[in-house]
Amino acid sequence: KETQEISSNQAKIDLIGDDTRKMVVSIAVTKMFKINKMNWTDIKKMLIEIDETILGFDGFLGLKKIVPSVNELEISRSFKGDFETLDLTSRWICEVSPIPRLMARFDSLALHSEFLKTHDKYQIFITTLYNSLETFQSNRNFHRFLRVCIDVGNILNTGNRRGAASGFKILSIIEFLNCKSSVKKGVSVMDFIILEIRSQAPDVLSFIEVLDANMKIATSLNIEDVVAEVLEIHGKINNIRKQLELAENSKPPDLHYVDKFSSLIMDYGEKVILMTSESKRVQEFYFEVMVLLGENERKLKDKKSQDILKPLSIFFSTINQYILNLKPLK
User: Fold this and answer.
1) Quick check: helix, strand or coil at residue 290?
2) 0.85 exceeded by the pTM?
3) Which of 147, 158, 145, 161 is nearest to 194 (CA)?
4) Which residues pair with 180 in a beta bridge?
């Protein structure tokens, strides 16, 4: 009804013929006319200047779904009549089609928001995952802890072929929690190991609290997904660079696009390049360290990092909580 009020009572020319498409466009355009009190000149000015303040950021980006398609652009170029004779959807397409880089305007603005939301989160994840892996690779107390676990395992397996092990796959350490005492109900082999280390060399356990905190963050995302998404953002940044070059060299120059997004490239370009390099480096380090800890390289590439590291995170969280619940040493 609101759309009909905007149009005249006379029959209008329909260039599209897609009822679903017409409904989506009509709702969005009618809202700008009725709620935001805009006319065609206002709408085009807002899009050219990339002014998201009128509709709000999400409202402005919501118009991306009604940007004319390639086919609709061709239809608009072929129409030589009076725009007043068009129905609302057809007129929208004809009115906004001449705006340069219309889709790029929305994509570039969306990337600005996406980068702000993801950069800090990904940076924290990448750094924390690296710190966790470095603990596995280089922390002396972690290695001393593993040595004790190997010794206890060998004692338990005395008399069979597993009783002289020099190492084990890191995920096997979880079994120390599952092996329970037949004398003291609920007490696991790991509980015994923690109590003995705590009484004889408590400094060996100093890595656990920090590792527990780091592993919670390191398992919040998959390194494979982060690398893929950072590469995607990198590609989008490169596309904006190309669009900026075209905007600067067009006649007349598209100064609104240049002014809006040249600073984005300056601010984010180097950060994205650095994050791309760091995420790839940490992914390679992840494979290197996990293979060092006994995991199969093919298995690592077939599974997400969360699937591999989550059980370890739960393990260290469990023993850290156990230590925190113990009474202080006298």
Assistant:
1) helix
2) no
3) 145
4) 188
- The answer to whether residues 165 and 147 touch, using CB atoms and an 8 Å cutoff, is no
User: Is residue 190 within 8 Å of residue 118, measured between CB atoms?
Assistant: no
| Among 79, 86, 88, CA closest to 39 | 88
Sign of the Cα pseudo-torsion (199, 201, 206, 209, in order) = negative
CA 133: distance to chain centroid? 21
- How far is residue 225's CA from residue 184's CA, in Å, rounded to a whole number? 44
d(C-alpha 11, C-alpha 292), whole Å: 75
Beta strands in 92-163 (DSSP E): none
Q: Tell how far CA 158 is from the center of its chain.
A: 48
First vs last C-alpha separation in the chain: 81
Q: Of 44, 116, 126, which Cα lies nearest the Cα of 264?
A: 116
- CB neighbour burial string for 212-247, b if at least 16 within 10 angstroms, e if fewer: bbbbebbbebbbbebbebbeebeebbeebeebbeeb
Place of tokens 């370009």: 269
Token output for 275: 């994050």
Render pLDDT for 230-275 as a digit per residue (tens, 0 to 9): 999 999 999 999 999 999 999 999 999 999 999 888 888 888 999 9
Would you state the structure tokens that stand for residue 135, as one six-digit string?
Answer: 């603990």
